[in-house]
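This protein record is not my work; I was only asked to verify it. Where you disagree with what is written, explain briefly why. This is what I was given:
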Amino acid sequence: MPQPAFDAKPKDLFTRLGGQPAIEAVVGEFVARLAADQRVKFRFVNSNIPARTKDLVDFVCVVTGGPCQYGGREMKILHASMHVTREEWAATVEALVGALVKFDVPEAEQAELLGAIDPLEGQIVDPPAERPSGKELAKIEEAAVDLTRYGEQAEIYHNVFSRSAARPFDLGIFKNAQRAVTFDREGIVKVGCNLHANMATSIIVVAAPHYAVTDAKGAFRFRSLAPGAYTLRAWTERTAEPVTRTIEIKEGTNEISIDADGEAPTGTGQDKFGAPRGTPP
């Protein structure tokens, strides 16, 4: 007795989408749309587009049940401190939907893929806090402002960031603009530009009521300190951690010599993702 004919629906979304060639076509169109969208295209400045596209193809392949292996960074780590906004996320989803529609992907498969991508919003979207005012606002004078002025003169993009534990941040890619960061924790904040390895500075955030900056000869002076025991911490850009000493201040003039060893790593350091400068993306 003949069996009734029916279409066996493949279980995995990878197969129903058309396999690897179809995913490569959709992702290629998706990236092209993002690169042309005014809301998000600045995120691709200085990016290795072919490498990022390959990572996205592998990622979509994995989440749809395909045989690929995703070798890129976790999405939460990849977008850490980038302050991706909800508008940017909406633009990303729109680009993906547009790519799916262009290649006539059925609505059911579209919905399933978008459902698989949807949980990433919580890992990627991290809009910046509202702009602080008054004493709460600490501008990065040596980084954001100076580098921005350089950009205004040379029409060059910058991406000011810090991976320092005291205040990690990523100001995004910009030119002809000023960005602000609030420093609410004491510590050393090493600042760099992800687009220019030779641009770097440091910001020291202190909560102590007494502090001083050395002169060109390395000398410093406190004009008024009450006698007693103090903890002194000294730091230079050549030290990995502050030199800490307990000192005793007596009546009259006091002198102390501090040796700050240069044990900090030399070179251009790491980019904002933690990769050593000069390595392939």
